[in-house]
Each structure stands twice: as structure tokens, then as C-alpha cells.
Write a structure and sequence with these properties.
Layout lengths: L13 E3 L4 E2 L2 H11 L4 H4 L1 H5 L10 H16 L4 E11 L9 E13 L5 E11 L5 E12 L4
Antiparallel strand pairs: 1-4, 2-4, 3-6, 4-5, 5-6
Length: about 150
């Protein structure tokens, strides 16, 4: 376990996750296949060439899911009881095949549950490409375990 327990989260703290990931065409294709997402903007080069992007773009849900995965070791690995919500999801810029993303998480809120046995933690997750352009952001709320006594 490397995640943080409820007591270890500090509101206002930003964690810059060390793991980066270059997204390949195969990654995007496989995710679209697994989720049955046949959006031509992700899969059809000729279709995408006639859009504002000029080429295929990576599925935004894949970008978000990958970002969550990147945060797990530093934030919630083995210390989360449940993911409660993903809110305020934004994709301000596209991700292209070959882009390398990095992720940072800022703790925005925390509170104990009514029984005092666990805590609810909210973090804002930001995803940047290799040019430091924000490509995705969202709020992730988790039910966090407290440190064992």
C-alpha cells in the first residue's frame, strides 16, 4: 500500500505524480473497442481529417481513466473504500496519438463520515500534455480509510 489514509490528506496540497504516459494509437483503438465507442473522430482518419482537429483524437474518457490510474499509487492505493464520484469533467484541449501526459492532484476538501470511521476526500485532477497544455480536468471524490490503530 502506498496510498494516503484520510488523516494524511491536506487540503490545498498538490501532488505532482511522477508517472507519465505516452498514448499510442493502439491504446486509443483498444479502449474504443473495449467500450464499444465507435465515434469516427477517434477511429476514422479520413473523417477526422475534415474536422477542426485535422486528425483523430484520443477518446476523452480514456484520457480521464488513464489519469485516475496514474494517481492511484500516490493517492489511494489500498487506502480507499470506494470511489464516490467524478464531477466537473472538462476536456479543454484534445489529446493526439503520441502525446505524453502528466497528472497532478490537488486536495480540495475532506471531511469525516458521520460515523467518524472513514473520511470523504475530494481532489481536483489536472492532466497536461508534453507542452504543459491542460487537456483534461475533473474532481474525484473518494471514501478514504483512516489509519489503523
Amino acid at each position: 500500500m502506498t496510498g494516503l489514509y484520510y488523516e494524511e490528506f491536506t487540503v490545498g496540497e498538490t501532488v505532482k505524480h511522477d508517472t507519465r504516459r505516452t498514448i499510442s494509437e493502439a491504446d486509443n483503438q483498444q479502449f474504443c473497442d473495449m467500450t464499444m465507442n465507435q465515434q469516427p473522430l477517434h477511429l476514422d482518419e479520413e473523417f477526422a481529417a475534415d474536422t477542426q482537429f485535422g486528425e483523430r483524437i484520443v477518446n476523452g474518457i480514456y484520457t480521464m481513466a488513464l489519469a485516475v490510474g496514474i494517481t492511484i499509487p500516490d493517492m489511494t492505493d489500498g487506502t480507499v473504500a470506494a470511489n464516490l464520484s467524478y464531477d466537473t469533467v472538462e476536456h479543454p484541449a484534445p489529446v493526439y496519438h503520441g502525446d505524453t501526459i502528466r497528472v497532478q492532484s490537488t486536495v480540495t476538501d475532506k471531511r469525516e463520515t458521520s460515523d467518524g470511521e472513514r473520511g470523504v476526500v475530494t481532489m481536483n485532477v489536472e492532466v497536461f500534455n508534453q507542452d504543459d497544455e491542460l487537456v483534461c480536468s475533473f474532481d474525484r471524490t473518494v471514501l478514504s480509510l483512516k489509519k489503523p490503530e
